[in-house]
Amino acid sequence: MLRDTARRRPELVFEWLLPRARRASGVTVREAVKPLSPQQRAAVLAAR
Description:
Elements: H1 2-8, H2 10-17, H3 26-33, H4 38-47
Helix pairs in contact: 1-2, 1-3
């Protein structure tokens, strides 16, 4: 669901996922960050 939403509304997913990145599973984060920009992807992965 996050991956599909990120395709249409990447800012929304980024803002939602960033504070939850530590608690989210690896698969969830990996799939959700695919459509995000490189900067957003790096920020989420660094938060893990």
